[in-house]
Design brief:
The complex is a heterotrimer of chains A (328), B (302) and C (321). Helices cover 31% and strands 23% of the residues of chain A. Chain A is of the alpha/beta class and 328 residues long. Chain A has a single domain, classed as 3-Layer(aba) Sandwich (Rossmann fold). In chain A, a hairpin with a 2-residue loop joins β11 and β12. Chain B is elongated and about 75 Å long. With 302 residues, chain B is mostly helical. Chain C has 321 residues and is α/β, with parallel strands linked by helices. Helix content of chain C is 33%, strand content 25%. The longest helix of chain C has 18 residues. Chain C is globular, with a radius of gyration of 20 Å. The two termini of chain C are 34 Å apart. Classes of the chains: A alpha/beta (328), B mainly alpha (302), C alpha/beta (321). At the A-C interface, α6, α7, α8 and α9 of A face α7, α8, α9 and α10 of C.
Chain lengths: 328, 302, 321
């Protein structure tokens, strides 16, 4: 729950009405292809040096949003502006230049590193791809970055499988850092790690942000982790942002019923806390076939008739605090 | 439970140790060791063939009509054939032909099949469709029949036999590599390479290809035996190596008419084929097992 | 209510013999469960919490694993000495186990209904009709919406939460004396996790279920457990009832673990991190296994292994401090 820095004014990234629909396999020959509406109109902006947390349960589209922003998946529609430039118009050369500025850290430290490459080669690769510096200089840079993330320089000759999950995640971070990006999308970077190692990696990310002033989009299902690391938090449900607010307001004054339920579902590590839990019934609807009106109405404890008919609009409910619910 | 290997000071030893561990795994299985032993003997024989063969000229085809159809004995351990040539010498010289030809076929097949599989799997869509349907078409023919048809149209000799065997063989490698590539291209490290802006060529050759080579190596080892068998079959039908050059398949065929009385002509060359195919199979299975733990990292999830 | 011990483990040692050496996955663990309680077993991956549970049912894959020594006392018998067929009667019947991913423990080609009934026919000698009735009953006890429909569905048609409910229903229907739940909610979404957790709490109240709840999540332990065993690197380092553990954790590892998790609404810039990593399970360590990472380690800790001692009634700690 970091307070907003005064310097954070310039907008780095702006996402407007981003959507991504994946076609399902055609079920019958002459039938229209059905779509999975993974991301369904997501808008937000991100300032320089800010961390935005993206929280939601599986299938809410948080990961797809991250990928679509980086154009690792081509978005179906919507605008992504990075430093005022429309990403959709980038040709291959411009896209490659953009990749120096925007990077991604992956969830699975076991799958995100090429097992056939040495750690040195993995960390060096971004420099090589972008033709930065000479071989000798690059090795120097790699050693410097490795030190930054807390790895010995002599790890360079070893292979990823020789490292533990936490160390591999550090390697992944080092690889991304070599390019000195302005934006890092961290996709569940600590979910695969043990609790004590999680803290190490989260602290590392906070320290690096202080030093290099980059912006993070921190994607996670763990609201406690997100609330800890983010300036602002966006809660997603079924491909939409249902609430977005400064981190401390999300916790202290949640407005959307889903946010409230999510907060109360988190088991608090204190046996004496007996906060009344609102436990949501039912399952998350299938994003290929979701309900009319408000997506959350099937599980919402306060659903009314209007929720069935009309999609709720985002309304301002506080300073920098927006939520989409008819009950507000 | 995933074993976490701790930092060791002597890390430069790790890579060497890794190979040694792989070798150890191969040798642990007595059958694999047996297969490897036979292959080592076979390769040594092929390399030193002119020096090992007691009658190298006869091995190459010079006839010696004074000693026709001599049964196995002291002068001719495996006996002689109907032209008086020493069978042992012919088997030894023939080993060279067979091995060279098998290596050539494996290389051709890999050179065609692997890149096509890589392209089909990586690009998908129409490209995939065209390559794979073409491969299916070739696989739909009985391979030996196709080979026979090819040799028959090109004319019987060793080179044409190699071509004839390679053509129905490469689609297996294309299929194998394609299925690997399809699962690999969804891996996070490939996405990570895309995210840093790596080119398609780099992703294909630096990230995907090295990770799908282990099954190719296993398949190639297993196939060495089958290729030798196919060559012998073509030789047997008179469509491969042409007499008087030595070839195991041709020798089996030559001995056919004498089999009831002069059993040794067909038998020893048949045994040579049998042992070679068996050895490559045993080794291939051993290699598969040894490589497996390294393939398993993909399923190592916590 | 008199405290009746249902199951107790004494000095269990389960080793794995691997290329790297002997991996001491469980190295002398003892704990017991009292009837009607939920015992939480917490620890990070590789601490031996799951291996202990598998050892109870003698489900350790062998080779490479082997239960080297120890006793598991259940209903007056040492499970270690039982013949395999007796052991099979206990598995899934008197002691049930549910896993993190229920899809792997359900057979994909049979409907939920047929799998549930089969278990009841086998273990409880019910007729087909009775078994079916019981299955529906148990599914509705687990708050399955429209159990009749669920009976006809295949495992892949259910969501993760529903599958876990089906597994719990199976254990429930067998009148299991002990339910071992190995990370039952880890693969589920937060809101679904809350549902399942709530269900187990309720079932404990209604049926007096005894449960061993294995998890890495301290929040879940705080919510659901009565007593807690904390494990580290194959050993039990602390045991206490849930209130005194969270109020006054004694072992530096437990303390570090609690401080390293972000708590909602607590604003701090950096989390307290535990330095270093868990020692490899095949290393010989003469002293305390946590000593290398411990902020309060003394010289003695590296030389000598601390024994468990009772610092308060029912609160055991293995630390010199």
């Amino acid at each position: 729950m970091l307070p907003l820095n005064k310097k954070m004014k310039e907008i780095l990234l702006e996402v407007k009405n981003l959507t991504k629909h994946f076609p399902l396999e055609k079920t019958r020959l002459f039938r229209r292809t059905r779509f999975v509406f993974a991301v369904n109109g997501v808008s937000f902006s991100l300032k320089k040096g800010e961390t935005l947390g993206l929280v939601g349960e599986s299938g809410c589209g948080k990961t797809t949003t991250g990928r679509a922003i980086l154009r690792l998946i081509e978005p179906t529609s919507g605008i992504v502006n990075f430093e005022g430039q429309d990403l959709a118009r980038f040709d291959n050369r411009e896209l490659k230049a953009f990749r120096r500025n925007a990077q991604i850290i992956f969830q699975d430290p076991f799958a995100s590193l090429n097992p056939q490459m040495t750690v040195g080669a993995i960390v060096e690769e971004p420099l090589l791809v972008h033709g930065i510096a000479t071989k000798a200089k690059r090795i120097e840079m790699v050693a410097a970055v490795m030190e930054k993330v807390g790895l010995d320089a002599d790890c360079m000759r070893r292979f990823p499988h020789e490292f533990s999950g936490g160390q591999r995640q550090r390697i992944g971070i080092a690889r991304v850092l070599t390019l000195n990006p302005k934006l890092i999308i961290a996709d569940e970077p600590v979910s695969a790690l043990d609790v004590s190692i999680q803290a190490q990696i989260i602290n590392l990310l906070v320290r690096l942000q202080e030093e290099f002033q980059m912006s993070y989009i921190f994607i996670s299902h763990d609201l406690a982790v997100v609330e800890h690391i983010s300036n602002r938090v966006a809660i997603m449900y079924l491909g939409k942002i249902v609430e977005i607010a400064p981190a401390k307001d999300i916790y202290s004054e949640p407005k959307h019923p889903y946010t409230k339920a999510l907060l109360s579902a988190i088991p608090i590590p204190d046996p004496k806390s007996c906060t009344k839990r609102t436990i949501l019934g039912g399952d998350i609807p299938n994003p290929a076939n979701f309900p009319s009106g408000c997506g959350f109405r099937t599980r919402c404890p306060m659903a009314k008739k209007i929720c069935r008919i009309e999609l709720p609009k985002m309304v301002k409910v506080g300073k920098d605090h927006y939520a989409a619910c008819h009950a507000l | 439970m995933v074993m976490e290997i701790q930092k060791t000071k002597h890390n430069w030893l790790n890579k060497g140790r890794e190979y040694w561990r792989g070798m150890n795994l191969i040798l642990k299985n007595p059958l694999t060791t047996f297969g490897l032993g036979i292959i080592i003997i076979l390769v040594a024989t092929a390399l030193l063939a002119p020096h090992l063969a007691p009658y190298p000229e006869q091995g190459r085809g010079m006839s010696n009509l004074k000693e026709r159809l001599v049964p196995p004995g002291f002068r001719h351990p495996f006996g002689t054939d109907n032209l008086g040539r020493d069978i042992l010498s012919r088997i030894i010289i023939g080993a060279r032909t067979s091995l060279k030809a098998a290596i050539a076929v494996v290389l051709i097949v890999i050179a065609i099949g692997v890149p096509l599989g890589l392209i089909a799997g990586y690009f998908g869509g129409k490209v995939d469709e065209i390559i794979m349907r073409f491969a299916d078409m070739i696989l739909a023919f009985p391979s030996l029949l196709l080979a026979i048809a090819i040799v028959a149209s090109l004319g019987p000799n060793l080179l044409n036999a190699l071509i004839a065997i390679s053509i129905p063989w490469w689609p297996w490698y294309t299929r194998l590599v394609r299925s690997q590539v399809i699962s690999l291209k969804e891996m996070q490290f490939v996405e990570s390479a895309r995210a840093i802006g790596a080119s398609r060529l780099r992703i294909m050759f630096r990230h995907i290809l090295p990770n799908c080579l282990s099954p190719v190596i296993v398949q190639a080892t297993l196939d060495m035996g089958y290729i030798i068998l196919s060559l012998a079959s073509l030789g047997f039908l008179g469509l491969g190596t042409q007499p008087p050059a030595a070839d195991w398949g041709v020798m089996v065929s030559d001995g056919r008419e004498f089999f009831l009385k002069q059993w040794w002509i067909s038998t020893f060359s048949g045994v040579a084929i049998f042992l070679t195919v068996l050895a490559f199979n045993l080794l291939g299975d051993g290699v598969r097992e040894a490589l497996d733990p390294k393939i398993r990292w993909r399923f190592q999830r916590k | 209510m008199a405290a009746v011990t249902v199951l107790s483990i004494r000095d269990l040692k389960t080793y794995f013999y691997t290329q790297e050496g002997v991996s001491r996955a469980v190295d002398g663990v003892s704990y017991h469960v009292i009837r009607g309680e939920t015992l939480g077993v917490v620890g990070e991956s590789g601490c031996g919490k799951s291996v202990t549970a598998l050892s109870i049912l003698r489900l350790i894959p062998s080779p490479p694993g082997k239960i080297v020594s120890g006793e598991i006392i259940f209903e007056g018998h040492n499970l270690m000495d039982l013949p395999l067929d007796k052991m099979r009667e206990i598995r899934g019947n008197k002691i049930s186990m549910i896993f993190q991913e229920p899809l792997t423990s359900l057979n994909p080609v049979f409907t939920i209904g047929s799998q549930l009934s089969k278990v009841f026919i086998l273990h409880q000698n019910l007729t087909k009709k009775e078994a079916k009735k019981k299955a529906i009953e148990m599914l509705s006890a687990c708050e399955m919406p429209s159990p009749e429909r669920i009976m006809k569905e295949y495992p892949y048609q259910l969501s993760g939460g529903m599958r876990q409910r089906a597994m719990i229903a199976m254990a429930l229907g067998c009148n299991s004396k002990v339910l071992i739940a190995d990370e039952p909610t880890t693969a589920l979404d937060v809101t679904i996790q809350a549902q399942i957790l709530d269900l187990t709490l309720q079932l404990r109240k209604e049926f007096g279920m005894t449960m061993i709840l294995i998890t890495h999540n301290l929040g879940i332990v705080a919510k659901a457990a009565d007593r807690v065993v904390v494990m580290y690197a194959g050993e039990k380092v602390e045991e206490a009832d849930v209130f005194s553990l969270f109020e006054k954790p004694r072992h530096p590892y437990t303390i570090a673990l609690m401080k390293s998790i972000p708590i909602l609404g607590r604003s701090e810039k950096f989390l307290k991190e535990v330095k270093g990593v868990v020692p490899a399970p095949y290393l010989e360590i003469s002293g305390c296994k946590f000593a290398d990472r411990c902020p309060e380690a003394m010289r003695r800790c590296h030389r000598e292994k601390p024994q468990l001692r009772e610092v308060e009634k029912g609160h055991l700690v293995a630390c010199f401090r």
